[in-house]
Design brief:
The chain is α/β, with parallel strands linked by helices. Helices cover 42% and strands 15% of the residues.
Length: 311
């Protein structure tokens, strides 16, 4: 399969314009290495992990691939400062950031030659990131799993593309070649994909979690946390129904947070898809099978190239 060159593939040194999302508890070294080996850019999700845990993940990934991979830093993490330093010490070349503003780390990362790609949910933040030296941005629509903004991918991506000179990566609701082609038509130069990679054979995720995504219907997506300004998209289950009911009753942020403490880990690692948080994007209803990362990447790229008549 011929390569698809864009400013993003050149920037990251990858074959295909596909980046794997830095999903907490999911994006560990096996998945990151597999996506990179398939020609995309794999990411290790820093999540709430201490710096030394992320360092170990980086070193394990390097044993599995000699291709480029990156780290996603969740800026709300209490260990974000430590992870930021580990990235420099370990010679990581690409960082994506989420849940905040990475300005405080920009100087040390740029001095070390790290390519910085913040995830943004608005034109204003995209412009700010460009002014502070970001190499690209991920414009993520509310169709994505996990923490979400308000704008859809369809509306956000072209507005961000028009607002900045740096390359834009589209994310949210993309799970096949049609989504990739659509993103490129909106002006993106790469896509970030999360939910589909959760069901890859290399993802170290409980089988219950994978099957919940594979069996999901188009209407199975729910958003919790809107009442306290931290909306999270996941799949409907006992927990989401109870959470939404408690929100409607006006329960406090603390009560709601306590209810979901450790819920993502329970779903991903223990397979509790009834009371755990099954984070997944709205695209889950489109995903119907488990494949290797290589099979996924090749299938999506073949479909996208056919649609775009890209040689």
């Amino acid at each position: 399969m011929s390569k698809m060159r864009t400013r993003i593939t050149e920037l990251l040194g990858v074959e295909y314009p596909i980046i794997q999302g830095g999903m907490a508890w999911v994006a560990e070294h096996h998945l990151a290495a597999a996506v990179s080996e398939a020609g995309g850019l794999g990411l290790i999700g820093g999540a709430n992990a201490p710096g030394e845990v992320v360092r170990e993940e980086i070193r394990k990934a390097r044993k599995l691939t000699d291709k480029p991979f990156g780290v996603n830093v969740m800026l709300m993490s209490p260990y974000a400062d430590d992870v930021a330093k580990v990235i420099v010490e370990e010679g990581i070349r690409v960082v994506t950031t989420g849940a905040g503003n990475p300005e405080k780390y920009m100087d040390i990362w740029k001095a070390a030659g790290v390519k910085v790609i913040p995830v943004v949910a608005s034109v204003a933040l995209a412009r700010r990131m460009e002014r502070h030296g970001a190499d690209a941005v991920v414009a993520e629509g509310c169709e994505s799993g996990g923490h979400i903004g308000e704008q859809t991918t369809m509306t956000l991506v072209p507005q961000v593309v028009d607002a900045v000179e740096i390359p834009v990566i589209a994310a949210g609701g993309i799970g096949d070649g049609r989504g990739i082609a659509a993103a490129f038509m909106l002006g993106a130069e790469a896509v970030q994909i999360g939910t589909r990679f959760v069901v890859s054979k290399e993802a170290v995720v409980h089988e219950n979690y994978k099957q919940r995504i594979i069996k999901a219907k188009d209407i199975d997506s729910a958003v919790t946390g809107r009442s306290h300004g931290h909306p999270i998209r996941c799949l409907r289950n006992e927990m989401t129904r109870e959470y939404v009911k408690m929100e409607a009753e006006g329960k406090s942020f603390e009560e709601l947070e306590y209810m979901t403490l450790g819920a993502l880990r329970r779903a991903v690692q223990e397979g509790d898809v009834a009371r755990g948080t099954v984070m997944a994007g709205q695209i889950a209803g489109l995903i119907s099978k488990e494949q290797t990362c290589k099979e996924m990447v090749e299938e999506m790229m073949d479909q996208a190239k056919t649609l775009m008549k890209w040689d």
